[in-house]
Amino acid sequence: MQRYFAKNEEDTFFIQEDDYHHIVRVMRMDIDDEIYCVNSLQQAARCRIEKISENEVIAKVVQWLEGEIELPISVSIVSGLPKGDKLEWIIQKGTELGAFKFIPFIAARSVVKWDEKKGGKKLVRWNKIAKEAAEQSHRTMIPEVSSPISIKELIKLSEGYNVKLIAYEEEAREGESSVLTKSLESMTKGQSILAVFGPEGGLTESEVALLKEHGFVTCGLGPRILRTETAPLYLLSAVSYHFELME
Predict the structure, then answer these.
(1) Phi and psi torsions of 130, nearest 5°
(2) Residues contacting residue 84 through CB under 8 Å, at least 6 positions apart
(3) Least crowded by CB within 10 Å, which of 29, 188, 210, 233?
(4) Ribosomal RNA small subunit methyltransferase E methyltransferase domain: from which residue to which, for each copy (predicted)?
(5) What is the three-class DSSP state of 58?
């Protein structure tokens, strides 16, 4: 059954714009068809379409749904701007795996150069990918994708996080996996991780040193060297295993 994020008042949801088009034009739904809806409080419900107007679908709640879908800790993924559509892959698959937020990072070795004037369309697309992936995976929230930031902005942003990790391939080469394990074991429900991943060429030694000066710790992600688009998915899977499957 299709899922949509929409505004609601009590037991009524109001669906407009792209989602309206999807329901009416793509899915060709009609009165009495059922959908899932999620409101801004992350409450999900099974709903019945009650009315379809020229620009709005109105759906009534049939049943509010219980159960926890989101990861018990929030994981924000900081990705050094990669080439091509790799960031789109990270956003889509990372959303399916439960990421809380995506923060593109203008790293020293990022080949892609961010243009603020032209970047608006990309940002809209990235957030649309996150929304569609959240709907597909039946999330109760849509991860935010922010505009790319500098390392100075990243350091400032990191002040609000409980655990700050750098996925560093030098640690993987040395077989260092205990940092990630110990970090997860130290955390409790409601806390947050900020995890930094370099672009294709990796982070520079000076970038790593600067981040470590501000409370970040380096960690390996298993004995193999992972691509920039694979590493965030490894970490999210490890978090899910530790906090969800192990429970």
Answers:
(1) -65, -40
(2) none
(3) 188
(4) 70-239
(5) strand
pLDDT digits (tens, 9 = 90+) for 200-212: 989 999 999 999 9
Decide the pairing of beta strands 163-167 and 217-219: parallel
The pTM of this model reads 0.92
In one letter, which amino acid is 234?
Y
Task: Give residues with Cβ within 8 angstroms of 138, minimum separation 6.
Answer: 3, 36, 44, 69
Domain extent for 20: 3-64
Dist CA 167 CA 170 (whole Å):
9
Whether 73 contacts 189, CB under 8 Å: yes
Q: Mean pLDDT for the chain?
A: 93
Single-letter code of the amino acid located at 164: K
Same-domain pairing of 96 and 21: no
CA of 64: how far to CAs of 19, 44, 45, 47, in Å?
A: 20, 6, 4, 9
Per the rule left: phi > 0, alpha: psi between -120 and 50, beta: everything else, 165 is: beta
Same domain for 82 and 59, yes or no, is no
**Cα(117)–Cα(94) distance, integer angstroms:** 27
Residue 240 has which token pair? 């899910």
Q: Are residues 96 and 162 in the same domain?
A: yes
Query: Among positive and negative, which fits the CA dihedral 24, 26, 27, 28?
Result: positive
- How many domains does the chain contain in total? 2
